[in-house]
Amino acid sequence: MGVLRDAWSYRGLIIIILTPLLLLPLPLLIGSKVAECGFTLLVMAVFWVTEALPIAVTALIPALFFPLFGILKSTEVAATYFKDFHLLLTGVICLATAIEKWNLHKRIALRLVVFIGANPGWLMLGFMVSSAFLSMWLSNTSTAAMLMPIVEAVIQQIITADSEVTMRRERSLTGCSNTDLQLDGEGLGLDISSLQGVVVWNQRLSYFTFPKNLPHTLKYTPNTSNVPIPGPQGRYHSVKDHMMCKGLSLCIAYSSTIGGLTTLPGTSTNLIFNEQINQFYPDCHCINFGNWFILCLPISIIVLLLSWVWLHWLFLGSDFRSLLSFRRERSEREKSTARIIEQEYNALGPLSFQETVTLVIFGLMVVLWLARDPGFMPGWASLFPQYSGYATDATVALLLGLMFFIIPANKPSSPKYETLISWAEFQSCMPWEICLLVGGGFALAEGTKVSGLSVWVGNLLTPLKNLPIWAIITITCVLVTTFTEVASNPATITIFLPILAPLAETFHVNPLIILIPTTLCTSFAFLLPVSNPPNAIVYTYGHLNVIDMVKAGLGVNIIGVLVVLLAMSTWGIPLYNLDTYPDWAPIHTTPNTTGL
């Protein structure tokens, strides 16, 4: 056992050494560029899934292997590591840094929750909407990290309010007895009234204390809607409260990912897809912020609402009638919750100068993104026909992102000049590991294209051509949704896009009809705490077990895949002309694979 324990502690090193050795016969025995690129791809896939190396470090492998295998020169590989994506991400992170620094995210979230109400069901929906909205512009990790402390404060206030109600109920009874606790002393010869004062309510920890010498044959039958239950440090007043804590935690994890689907900069997988499309098909100018928003906003809304219904049924119950009773008398816990949320919001004070400037730049960035090239009408980019295709969404993001380093954070009357954000603050928010990971994905995609691996894989999957196209799309969506549960989302999309693009060409269908749903389904990593950073963040608060996330996440995964398939078979078709093979995609030809 000691040897196995030592081996397990060195599992990362073992994987790093054994993986290349076991795969080495592939390039040595076959010796073709396809095999050498396949070797690189498999090594990176294993390292990304197992995280034997940090994912950003694994992304540097193409810069090492491709020159050694003669697939790409070192200068050519290096050029693929920095793309338009990185400029767009830089501008977006400038905005995210300012929003977080000046607490604009907290104001938006609290304002929305105050507007919706304190009923647990409406409270869940309010947090989901605010989380989804913020994640359209911020990373899902940042959104979950910023909102969970607010949710936790509301949870604690609800539990405290329940404790106060229980204490008042107990004071109205004789001694410390509790009518919700039914003690059965039959056959013990005990007078139940003599046990008054034995069962004590611990107000600080919110649970009942039973003496150690209480006869083991003494039974108690809890009312699961009111009686406190054992939990971590006895933190829950009732089963109902515990279930509410689970639901509110998961709603943040899931909605912070669902909202990111709506915009291109909302999640790294969307940005990787956009850049990969530009790399695979340089003549394709059909993906931009405007038409992506039109496609994905309905998807996000439908998935969000159905996920809310699913989480409500799973954790708050199937009684939705209370949500429709707007005029009913609010319970004590709802009044207390509403009070704490309003206090949190009022503590922010009036809208500050810094928040106002950030909000204006935020709105201007969105408007310029939407109006650059909306697709259904001429955008502002058409004012410069001689420079068509020069300005992109990254141009807008960079222009307005730089404003945060120029505009003073204080009013002109202030003697000290300080900008809205500093370079140190920007660095603390900038996900440098994602920059390297995406760059490695671009290098890998270029290598699979130059070596012929992507075309070879496409021909290998030709037997699937006998299936209906929607069956193929469903299979790929389920495949990436499953794979992304054990691998990071950016790594998953980086591995699958170079394979699926030539597959679409082989079937002579619009590549977007396969690549877009695959990209969206890559974000549906809801089953495990390790599947997605927001999942891990909410799990650390201690309200959830892994099985809770698996049960809830499975339902959200199914909802997400079905809605994406619905979108691609309805409004997605006319939006991107998915029913025709585009002229920007090459005609697929069978490659010479004799070397394989």
UniProtKB/TrEMBL annotation:
Its main location: membrane. The keyword Endoplasmic reticulum does not apply. InterPro entries: Na/sul_symport_CS (IPR031312), SLC13A/DASS (IPR001898). Pfam families: Na_sulph_symp. It comes from the Eukaryota. It is found in: Membrane. GO terms for molecular function: sodium:sulfate symporter activity. GO terms for cellular component: plasma membrane. The chain crosses the membrane at residues 12-30, 42-69, 81-100, 112-138, 292-324, 345-370, 390-409, 467-500, 512-530, 550-568. It is a multi-pass membrane protein. PROSITE patterns: NA_SULFATE. Keywords: Ion transport, Membrane, Sodium, Sodium transport, Transmembrane, Transmembrane helix, Transport. Signal peptide: none annotated. Coiled coil: none annotated. Belongs to the SLC13A/DASS transporter (TC 2.A.47) family. NADC subfamily. This is Solute carrier family 13 member 1. It comes from Aldrovandia affinis.
